[in-house]
């Protein structure tokens, strides 16, 4: 069996040349830094005043839609006995501070640093009651 010729044409097309790369452009020089009124403490103060003014306007708008905000203070009446003259001496004088410290430890057992204030108050009470007894 004889091969047929395709008239001098090859089965594969001739490889094409890749287009020439575009010339590389140089980056333009950066813009010069602004001086004078472009920055500084004055612009920061002006920006803060604008933010505060916008915040006040937004609060007024929300108050107009939903009514004014009201703050209610609740007082809790405890059933703890009132201190008498005989309970002012010794460890009874510090029982309030001791109870506050214990409550804090019970609430924030994992983070004792939050109870430092109560511990300081208890220590100061014990130091002061020791001075009164002596």
Entry keywords:
single chain; 134 residues; mainly alpha; elongated; Cys_alpha_HP_mot_SF; Putative cysteine alpha-hairpin motif superfamily; CHCH; CHCHD2/10-like; disulfide bond
Which secondary structure elements does this structure contain, and how are they paired or packed?
Blueprint lengths: L40 H26 L28 H13 L8 H18 L1
Helix pairs in contact: 2-3
The overall pLDDT, averaged over residues, is 74
The helix content is 40-55%
Assembly status? single chain
What class would the helix/strand composition place it in? mainly alpha
What series of H and E elements makes up the topology? HHH
Q: Strand portion, in percent?
A: under 5%
Largest sheet: none
Instruction: Tally the helices.
Output: 3
How far apart the termini lie comes to 130 Å
Structural summary, described in words:
InterPro entries: CHCH, CHCHD2/10-like, Cys_alpha_HP_mot_SF. By secondary structure, the protein is an all-alpha fold. It has a domain of 44 residues. 43% of the residues lie in helices and 0% in strands. The protein starts with 40 loop residues before the first helix and ends with a helix. About 5% of the residues have low confidence.
Compact description:
Helices cover 43% and strands 0% of the residues. With 134 residues, it is mainly α.
